[in-house]
Write a structure and sequence with these properties.
The structure holds 2 protein chains of 2 kinds.
Chain A (H helix, E strand, L loop, with lengths): L38 H13 L3 E6 L2 H4 L13 E4 L4 H17 L9 E7 H7 L1 H7 L7 E7 L40 H8 L5 E6 L3 H14 L2 E7 L3 H5 L5 H10 L6 E4 L2 E4 L1 H7 L8 H5 L10 H16 L21
Parallel strand pairs in A: 1-2, 1-3, 3-4, 4-6, 5-6
Antiparallel strand pairs in A: 5-7, 7-8
Helix pairs in contact in A: 1-7, 3-5
Chain B lengths: L14 E6 H11 L4 E4 L6 H12 L6 E4 L3 H13 L4 E5 L1 H6 L1 H9 L5 E6 L13 H4 L7 E4 L3 H15 L8 E6 L7 E6 L2 H7 L17 E2 L4 H34 L8 E4 L6 E6 L3 H13 L4 E6 L1 E3 L3 H8 L4 E6 L12 H10 L8 E5 L9 H15 L7 E3 L5
The chains are: A alpha/beta, B alpha/beta.
C-alpha cells in the first residue's frame, strides 16, 4: 500500500520564553477600526506576530474583516485575502494545496509558508463548520484555522451564534416580558468536537489572549507541527458583552478562572490542560464563582439568582461529571479498572 | 502571445479516441497541466471527475485532487488555490451549481481566471436529471464567461481555449463551459486528442503577476470598498469582459494555426444560412436534431438555417444583429425558461431581442421553449417550429412564445 503523501516541511517556530522575548515586529498594524478594548484585534496581532512574515492570512467574513480591511487602509502587512463567511476551511485548504503543488512542480520557489485562515464564531461554529471539518481531514496540507470567538455575530449588531452562551442578551435574544431568557441553548464545544472527530489532525487547542505568551506559543506549535490544525480563542467583546473596555483582559482571565473557558491542547492525540485550567484540575487553584464573570457583563444584566445558579450548575457539571473536565462531555457510569472476570 | 509557432511543426500527431464529452474535458485538464482540481458528486457533471480521478490514480495527471464536502467548498478551494497561483478546475450541475452560488459570485470580482464545467441539468424541485440551461444561465449577470459546446471535440478544444482566454491578463475572468447533460456529458464520440507540444505552444503558463497572494507580494485581496470604490471595480470587470471578445478571437485564430482546426467565427456557428429565409437560433447539442431537420426541410424546399451560439458571455450582440438581420424571421429555441420575463420567453430569446433592438433591420423574433429537463427535441418538433417561423416571415401573426412538444 502507498504511504500517505507527506506534507511540505513547516517553519520551525520556537516557543517564546517570556514576555520580554516576544518579537518586536508587527504584521497587523495601524489602519483598523476595531472598538476600544477589542480582544479579537489583539488575537489577530498576536497570531500573526507569532507566525512571522512568511505567512499568508485568509479571513472569512466577520468583524475582523469589516473592521480591519477597509480599501486603502488595510492593517495587514502580510498577504491577506478575504474568504466567504463559511469558507475558512476551504480557503486554508485551497491555498495550502496550491503552495504544495506549485512547489512540487517547480512553478514556485520551495520554502515553508504559514497559511492561517481565521473565522469568527458564526463562520466557524455555524455556517463554516462542515468546511472546517472537511479541511481537517487532509493531513497532507499545512494550514491553521483560528476561530476567534466573541460569542456573537458582532459586525452585524450582536446577533446570537451557536457559541453565544446560555441566556445572553443579543439582538436576536432580547429579554422580554413573556420570556426573560430567549436563548436557552448551551454553547457548542467546537474544539473538543473537532479534536475528537479528526484523529489525523495533529493539533487542536483553546486559547485566551489574556495569556499572550501562552496564546502565541499555541499558534507556533500549531504551525510547526504541520498538517491542518485548529485553535479556538475566547475573545471578550466590549460592545457585544457590554462592559467597560478597560476590563477586556480581566474578563478573559475570569472566563478561565471561573472554569467557563478551559484551556487545553490536543497534540498528536494527547490531551493536556494548561495554565490556570491545569491548576484548577489539579486542585492547586480554586474555581471562582461564575457570577463574578457574568455580573461584569451587561448581556447578563437580566439574570436572576435562578439563572446564576443554573449557569453555575452547568459549569460544575462540566468540571465534575464530564469524562474529561471541560472537554469531553460524556458521563461514564462504568466501573473502571475492573479486572476481567 | 507571440509564441514560437514554428516549433510546433514537429512531427507530433493527434491521436484518435472514442470518448464522452466529460472525458474530453478531463483530457483537456491533463493537457493544460491543471494544478488543483476539486470534486463533489452530482449528475451529470460528476462524470468528468470520475475520469479525472482515473487520470490521477494512473499517474497521468499531476495535480492536487481534492474531494470536497460540498459544492460551495469545491469552488472556494479552487478560488483560493487560483489566487495563490495555481491553475484550477472544478464544476457542478443543477442545484449543486446553485449551492456554490456565493462562491461563483465572488470569483469574477476577484479576477480569478478559473475554468469550470457546468453539466447542464434541470433545477429541483421537481428533481430531474436531464438537461436544462437555467443552471448555467443563473451566472449570466455575475461576470462569468459562458460558452456552450456541441460535441466532445469542441468540449476538449474549448476547455483549452477557455484557459487561454481566462488567464489572459486583459481578461482575468472565470469561464464556465456549459455541456448539455447526458447528450454531451455521457455520449461518446470520436475525438482527436492533440499532442502535448501543441498545447504547450498554445497555452502559456498561468501567471498571476502582481495579484499573486504570496509573502513576496504582501497585498490585501478583497477588502471592504463600500460606495467609495464599488462602481469603479464593477466598471473594471465590464471592461475586462469587453476585452474578452478580442482575446477570444485571437485565441481561436491561434488555435486554428497550431491545431489546424478552424472554428471560423468563434461566437456562433452558422449552418445553411447563406440562402435561408428564416433561421433557428439555439445553444448546445440542440444543433443535432435541428441540422437533421434542416437537411430534410431543404429537400422540401423550405429555406431554413441554424445559428448555434457558442459564447453567451461575452455576448456577440453586434455580430448577431448583423447576421440575424439578413433573415425574414428568427426563431430562438430556449432550453430554459424565465418565468414572468418579457413575452414570457426563454432567456436566450430575450437576449436576442435586446441585441436586435438597435439594429437597422429587425426581423420578428419568435421564442420556442423546447426540450426542458432533457426531453428529446425531435425532428418533427423542429419542423413545426420552422412552419410557425415561415408563416411569421410571410406576415402572418404568430405567438411570441410557443412551448413545443408539450402534452396539452
Amino acid at each position: 500500500m502507498d504511504a500517505i503523501e507527506t506534507a511540505l516541511p513547516t517553519q520551525q517556530l520556537e516557543a517564546i520564553k517570556g514576555v520580554k522575548k516576544i518579537p518586536l515586529e508587527e504584521f497587523f498594524t495601524s489602519g483598523h477600526r476595531t472598538c476600544q478594548g477589542c480582544e479579537s484585534a489583539l488575537v489577530m496581532k498576536l497570531m500573526v506576530k507569532a507566525a512571522g512574515p512568511r505567512t499568508i492570512v485568509l479571513g472569512s467574513t466577520g468583524c475582523m474583516y469589516v473592521a480591519n480591511t477597509t480599501y486603502y487602509s488595510t492593517s495587514w502587512v502580510v498577504p491577506w485575502m478575504h474568504t466567504q463567511l463559511g469558507s475558512s476551511g476551504s480557503a486554508g485548504l485551497g491555498t495550502a494545496a496550491a503552495l504544495k503543488v506549485l512547489m512540487r512542480k517547480g512553478k514556485m520557489k520551495e520554502e515553508p509558508i504559514n497559511v492561517i485562515a481565521f473565522c469568527g464564531d458564526g463562520g466557524g461554529a455555524d455556517m463554516g463548520l462542515s468546511a472546517i471539518s472537511a479541511a481537517l481531514t487532509h493531513p497532507q496540507y499545512n494550514f491553521l484555522i483560528l476561530l476567534y470567538d466573541n460569542e456573537s455575530y458582532a459586525n452585524t449588531d450582536i446577533q446570537l451564534s451557536g457559541l453565544t452562551p446560555y441566556g445572553a442578551h443579543t439582538t436576536f435574544s432580547p429579554p422580554g416580558k413573556a420570556k426573560r431568557i430567549l436563548h436557552t441553548r448551551w454553547k457548542k464545544n467546537v474544539a473538543g468536537m473537532l479534536a475528537a472527530g479528526h484523529p489525523e489532525c495533529r493539533y487542536v487547542a483553546t486559547v485566551c489572549a489574556s495569556y499572550a505568551v501562552d496564546m502565541m506559543n499555541r499558534v507556533r506549535k500549531a504551525l510547526t507541527i504541520g498538517g491542518p490544525t485548529f485553535i479556538h480563542s475566547i475573545d471578550p467583546c466590549p460592545k457585544g458583552w457590554d462592559f467597560d473596555p478597560m476590563l477586556s483582559h480581566e474578563l478573559g482571565e475570569l472566563a478561565v478562572e471561573t472554569g467557563v473557558w478551559p484551556l487545553y491542547e490536543v497534540e498528536n492525540g494527547v490531551l493536556k490542560l494548561y495554565g490556570r485550567t491545569k491548576q484548577i484540575a489539579e486542585k492547586r487553584a480554586r474555581r471562582k464563582p461564575v457570577r463574578e464573570f457574568l455580573l461584569k457583563q451587561g448581556r447578563f444584566a437580566h439574570f436572576t439568582e435562578d439563572d446564576f445558579d443554573y449557569f453555575q450548575a452547568k459549569v460544575d457539571e462540566m468540571w465534575n461529571r464530564w469524562l474529561i473536565p471541560g472537554v469531553i462531555p460524556f458521563h461514564t457510569e462504568l466501573e473502571r479498572d475492573q479486572p476481567p472476570a | 502571445m507571440a509564441r514560437a509557432v514554428e516549433q510546433v511543426a514537429a512531427p507530433q500527431k493527434e491521436t484518435d479516441a472514442l470518448i464522452s464529452g466529460s472525458e474530453a474535458i478531463a483530457v483537456a485538464c491533463k493537457l493544460a497541466d491543471v494544478d488543483v482540481i476539486t470534486a463533489y458528486p452530482i449528475r451529470p457533471y460528476d462524470t468528468v471527475m470520475q475520469y479525472v480521478a482515473k487520470l490521477v490514480a494512473n499517474g497521468e495527471l499531476d495535480c492536487e485532487y481534492i474531494v470536497a464536502e460540498s459544492e460551495h467548498s469545491q469552488f472556494e478551494i479552487v478560488k483560493h488555490a487560483c489566487a495563490a497561483g495555481a491553475r484550477v478546475f472544478c464544476g457542478s450541475s443543477g442545484v449543486g451549481w446553485m449551492y456554490a452560488f456565493e462562491a461563483l459570485t465572488v470569483t469574477p470580482a476577484l479576477r480569478i481566471p478559473m475554468v469550470a464545467m457546468v453539466g447542464n441539468r434541470a433545477l429541483d424541485d421537481p428533481g430531474a436529471f436531464g438537461v436544462e440551461h437555467n443552471d448555467a444561465l443563473a451566472v449570466r449577470d455575475l461576470g462569468w464567461q459562458l460558452v456552450w459546446v456541441d460535441t466532445a471535440q469542441e468540449a476538449l478544444d474549448t476547455a483549452l481555449i477557455a484557459y487561454r482566454v481566462a488567464e489572459d491578463r486583459r481578461v482575468f475572468l472565470p469561464c464556465a463551459i456549459a455541456c448539455d447533460g447526458a447528450f454531451l456529458t455521457h455520449s461518446q464520440a470520436q475525438v482527436k486528442i492533440p499532442p502535448q507540444q501543441w498545447v504547450n505552444a498554445f497555452l502559456p503558463p498561468y501567471n498571476r503577476g502582481d495579484l499573486l497572494l504570496h509573502p513576496d507580494n504582501p497585498i490585501t485581496v478583497a477588502p471592504q470598498v463600500n460606495e467609495d470604490w464599488l462602481m469603479e471595480i464593477r466598471k473594471h470587470n465590464d471592461e475586462a469582459m469587453k476585452r474578452a471578445k478580442t482575446v477570444i478571437k485571437e485565441a481561436y485564430a491561434d488555435f486554428a494555426r497550431i491545431f489546424g482546426r478552424d472554428y471560423g467565427n468563434p461566437f456562433f456557428e452558422e449552418y445553411q444560412t447563406d440562402d435561408a429565409d428564416v433561421v433557428l437560433v439555439g445553444m448546445g447539442t440542440l444543433s443535432m436534431p435541428v441540422k437533421v431537420a434542416i437537411r430534410r426541410m431543404r429537400q422540401e424546399g423550405k429555406k431554413v438555417g441554424l445559428v448555434r451560439l457558442r459564447w453567451f458571455r461575452p455576448f456577440a450582440a453586434e455580430e448577431l444583429a448583423a447576421t440575424l438581420g439578413r433573415f425574414n424571421a428568427v426563431g430562438v429555441i430556449d432550453r430554459d425558461f424565465s418565468f414572468g420575463s418579457p413575452y414570457t420567453s426563454g432567456v436566450l430569446a430575450t437576449e436576442i431581442r435586446a441585441a436586435l433592438y438597435p439594429a437597422e433591420k429587425r426581423p420578428p423574433v419568435l421564442g420556442f421553449i423546447c426540450g426542458l429537463g432533457g426531453r428529446e427535441v425531435t425532428v418533427p418538433d423542429v419542423q413545426r417550429m420552422t412552419d410557425v417561423l415561415l408563416s411569421a416571415a410571410a406576415g402572418k401573426a404568430q405567438p411570441l412564445t410557443t412551448w413545443v412538444g408539450i402534452r396539452e
